[in-house]
Here is the input.
Amino acid sequence: MPKDKILVVDDEEDILELVKYNLEREGFQVKCVESGEKAMARIRQEAPDLVVLDLMLPGIDGLEVARRLKQDQKYAGIPIIMLTAKGGEADIVTGLELGADDYIAKPFSPRILIARIKVILRRQSKEIQDSDQILLIGEITIDPRRRSITVVDQPIELTYSEFQILHFLARRPGWVFTRSQIVDAVRGDNYPVTDRSVDVQIAGLRKKLGQYSIYIETVRGVGYRFKEDA
Here is the structure.
């Protein structure tokens, strides 16, 4: 049985009871709060594995709660399902652009909500496992758990940012990423750094990788990618 912790945020007591009852039947650990302020306090006290979030809340509304979570690197990885009566297209787009993983309009089926929660948690678990895997690319070995890299069995000392950028690119060989996407992935949204800073980190990486720097390719006018075959 799953033991994931779910935080449900809604100002309607009937909704809280309905969702809590159905989730606990599935084995989830469920906490309920009825305002945005209490949601933020609860998350800081004990970060959940997923948040079911209403938009129309007293005080801090659901969109602001989502915005604050996604802007805080400590909590940005917590999945959010927005559950609300505001089912218009503009509301859905706004929620998704803020980083919500899914959007369910009221009235809703508890079975569908549970199914969506399970899908998101499975995906989250797989992404965590993938991010911990040791990468072997030619003569380069990247170990994210130890935060170490070796080239032809020789350790290479990288800064935190250099390692994060290399690991991010190497996990998706062949994919092209803009500088802003690299910044968001390495430091989280809204980190005060310029595109030029990414170029400086890449230059440092290439210098340390020596002849194996050819794996990191500049895509003119776009950004960078890690070659699948150098």
About this structure: The chain has a mean pLDDT of 86. The first strand starts at residue 5 and ends at 9. Residues 110-132 form the longest helix (23 residues).
